[in-house]
Amino acid sequence: MKLFLLLTLLLSSLFSSQMRAPLSNFTSSGGVVDLLYKNGKLYSATTASCVDIFDYKSKKLIKKIEVDKILDFMGELVDSKVYSVDVIDEKILILSQDKQGYRRVHIHKDNKTELLFDYSKSLTVTKAKFLNADTILLGLLSNELISYDIKKNSINWLVQVSGAKFSDFALDESKERVVIADESGDLKIHNTKDGKRLKLLSGQNLDNVFQVDYKKGVIATAGQDRRMVLYDLKADSSYYVESDFLIYSVGLSLNADIVAFASDEENNVSLIEVSSKKPLGKFSGNKMTLTKIIFIDENEFLVASDDRIINLYSVK
């Protein structure tokens, strides 16, 4: 009996030593829906009607951009969920929940938050990102992709990506190509100039792809089928890694040498080397379902969840 207990303790200790804790963390105003790092600042889109902006080094909150609360179907005032945030030059793009199930978009500049459009456009936008200072890309729940002119407040082009429900999109570094993920498991790569499809990637994810990332010609997916798929577009190759649980979030390092993904029901994150498939560690400390994984550089990455806490980790 003593030997059994000793072995149990040794195995438990070994398992714990393999799990790596956060170096530090940031505390947002609400659950984190989207996360962006740029020029020493961390932008957190939250469920609490705001975008929190942190100084990355000090971890201090330096600014909070608030959007109006909304009336729910019962006529009660509730927080507006901020679905995504993006930054270009001095402009901050904020996509948030509006009434009647539709969305609104604000542009924040020079300490002013101006409405671009609201629920009256009847758009169920799920994600919004800048293509350039005057153009944004919108991904709709209906899996329509829209290029939108900020100055003219009008649509440049609209394409129906597929009949499957939209999940996520990711732009390449040039913002000339976008990969779209949906409930079919297939990925579609489109040109952002005119919306035309360039490539279809299929056969690896068998169900809904929750999230996708795209860097240096490498695409990574987080799948409901418990598969994290990696596509190397330059080598025209792909492979997948299986998990014991639904994979809700995925993120590539800036050079696409490392991929991080949610790997179990305890909300732990696993890292592997993209080229060799070599495991690089497992990281703990996230209490709720993961929403975003982003790399600051090749040595540090952040993990956000439905919790207010954003955890910072070291790769090594």
Characterization of the model:
The chain is mainly beta. Among the domains are: 32-118, Beta Barrel (Thrombin, subunit H), CATH 2.40.10; 203-316, Methylamine Dehydrogenase, Chain H. 5% of the residues lie in helices and 54% in strands. The strands form eight sheets. A five-stranded mixed beta sheet has the order 1-28-27-26-25. Strands 2-31-30-29 form a four-stranded antiparallel beta sheet, with no helix packed on it. The two termini are 38 Å apart.
Describe this structure in a few short sentences:
With 316 residues, the protein is mostly beta strands.
Q: Measure the end-to-end span.
A: 38 Å
CATH architecture assignment of the domain at 203-316: 7 Propeller
CATH level-3 fold name of the domain at 203-316: Methylamine Dehydrogenase, Chain H
Q: What level of helicity do the residues show?
A: under 10%
Q: Can you say what the CATH homologous superfamily of the domain at 203-316 is?
A: YVTN repeat-like/Quinoprotein amine dehydrogenase
Strand order of the largest sheet: 1-28-27-26-25
Radius of gyration: 20 Å
Fraction in beta strands = over 45%
Q: How would you describe the shape?
A: globular
In DSSP terms (H or I, runs of 4 or more residues), the helix count works out at 1
Largest β-sheet summary = 5 strands, mixed
- Mean pLDDT over the residues: 94
* Spans where pLDDT lies below 50 across 5 or more residues: 1-17
Top CATH class of the domain at 203-316: Mainly Beta
